[in-house]
Write the structure tokens for this entry.
Amino acid sequence: MTSSGKSVGDGSYVRGLVEVADGVHAYLQPDGTWGWSNAGLVVGDGEAALIDTLFDLPLTRQMLDDMAPLTTPSPIRNVVNTHANGDHCYGNQLAAGPGVDFVASAATADEFDDVPAATLGAMVAGFTDGDLGAFVQSAFGPFDFSGIDVPEATVTFTGRHELDAGGRTVELIEVGPAHTAGDVIAWMPSERVLFGGDILFIGGTPIMWAGPVGNWIKACDLIVELDPEVIVPGHGPLTDLDGVRGVRDYLAMVQEMTIAAHAAGASPKDAARDIDLHINGTRFAGWTDRERIWVTVHAIWRELEPGFEPPDVVALFSLMADDFARRRG
Ligand SMILES: [Zn+2]
């Protein structure tokens, strides 16, 4: 609710800033598929906190320009990253300045260098043909990976960290490892607004790089317990607790079916294919980016079978590309 008592925005999902509570804003990027992430801005008394940046410098520059009427009187003093995936931190350097802190969980701070922007740039330049090329271009082709140099985090924490944004409290709660090693959600108890980072993909299929999946399910349960009025996901439109329950149910279903496939002696590839077929008959069938099931099933397999070595990232992208091509073809 805004101070005038209207419901949040007009329920539409359009690019740009939307005030979700008095002085609390989401920055949305439809359609929420690969790389099209959301961010947040908390404007306090004389200073603001930015929650996540975007996948490249031009997109982040545009976002900061759109925020300028709010951040000129209340400059960004803290930049929080919910996790280390590039679509949430590659724009960080544009918010740097004297007295600006970069705040992340210690595990996220450690992961910032794991996938440099140059690696994604090389993938876009190098994979142009065939199914893998079509997939890589679709996922990453729209972005500009040049000139990116993510600054080191200046404030790191484990567990919980309370951030003051000009008199407004933002509770940072580490819920990872789940989607990545160091996932954090940002909770504003007075405003009852929650920024979920990539614990919440709304209308799109979650992808689990790290796990364990039980942590991710617990994170969804925690969000339901906090009972926010407004929820800003890492990808997709603003949502409510039903959106959170959808993510939880998807993960619980994939977990359960992967455990059953493992117990029956199937391979992870067979499991991913069968679960995907099963999804055709469920409420998740309309979610975008269904090829991500391949990464999630392999990550759960690692939990079930000590010593199991999942395919490397390029091999995982090839599996997703085959799936993507099948779905299109
Ligand atoms: Zn993301």
Summary: Residues 1-7 have pLDDT under 50 and may be disordered. Residues 37, 85, 87-88, 198, 234-235 surround zinc ion (CB under 6 Å). The first helix runs from residue 57 to 71.
